């Protein structure tokens, strides 16, 4: 990586191309046609929010370039607060102390990391407020209770199930 950076810095054509690319893609993004269009979406979504006196225009009725703006414009203040409570619930959820083993806790932490990454990308460029089935599946994994039994007592639980089914 460092060698590639030095090679670009020493080559005038490559350096000018890299600088132009960074200017267009990062620093001056809002002045491109795409940036202007996305800004217009956000402006219209916020205008819709104010036109409905904070009640929102309804799910699927507005398109925004940012997830938080889309939620506010679609669901209004009350809906945005309820949606926020949902996010707070699963982002602050923890394992149930001693009942949780390391593997379960690892799954929950990984699912939480996926949800956080998903929310960051949706905040930057999410056009719709529906985050998709996969997001909500990971959110459910984040809040899931620890397994009812561990591998240590699996044999005992299995014997109880067999006894119930035969009797």
Descriptive account of the structure:
With 167 residues, this protein is mainly alpha-helical. The chain folds into two domains: 1-31, no CATH class; 32-166, no CATH class. Helices cover 70% and strands 0% of the residues. The chain has seven helices and no strands. The chain has helices spanning 2-10, 12-27, 33-51, 67-91, 102-125, 133-143, 154-166. Helix 5 (102-125) runs antiparallel to helix 6. The protein is flat and about 80 Å long. The protein starts with a helix and ends with a helix. The model has no long low-confidence stretch (mean pLDDT 83).
Please give the structural blueprint.
Layout: H1 2-10, H2 12-27, H3 33-51, H4 67-91, H5 102-125, H6 133-143, H7 154-166
Q: Give the overall silhouette.
A: flat
Discrete helix count:
7
Class from secondary-structure proportions: mainly alpha
Total domains: 2
What value does the Rg take, in angstroms?
24 Å
Mean pLDDT: 83
Termini, distance in Å?
Answer: 67 Å
Question: What is the number of beta strands?
Answer: 0
Low-confidence stretches: none
Strand content: under 5%
- Percentage of residues assigned to helices: over 70%
Q: What order do the SSEs take from the amino end to the carboxyl end, as H and E? A: HHHHHHH
Largest sheet: none
Quick structural gist:
By secondary structure, the protein is an all-alpha fold. Helices cover 70% and strands 0% of the residues. It is flat and about 80 Å long.
């Amino acid at each position: 990586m460092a060698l590639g950076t030095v090679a670009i810095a020493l080559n005038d054509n490559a350096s000018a191309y890299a600088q132009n690319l960074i200017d267009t893609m990062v620093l001056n993004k809002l002045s491109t046609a795409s940036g202007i269009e996305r800004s217009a979406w956000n402006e219209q979504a916020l205008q819709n929010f104010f036109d409905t006196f904070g009640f929102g225009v309804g799910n699927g009725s507005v398109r925004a370039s940012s997830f938080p703006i889309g939620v506010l414009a679609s669901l209004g203040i009350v809906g945005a607060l309820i949606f926020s409570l949902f996010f707070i619930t699963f982002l602050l959820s923890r394992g149930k102390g001693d009942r949780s083993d390391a593997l379960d806790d690892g799954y929950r932490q990984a699912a939480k990391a996926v949800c956080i990454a998903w929310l960051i990308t949706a905040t930057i460029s999410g056009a719709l407020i529906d985050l998709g089935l996969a997001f909500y599946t990971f959110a459910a994994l984040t809040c899931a209770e620890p397994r009812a039994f561990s591998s240590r007592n699996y044999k005992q639980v299995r014997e109880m199930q067999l006894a119930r089914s035969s009797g």
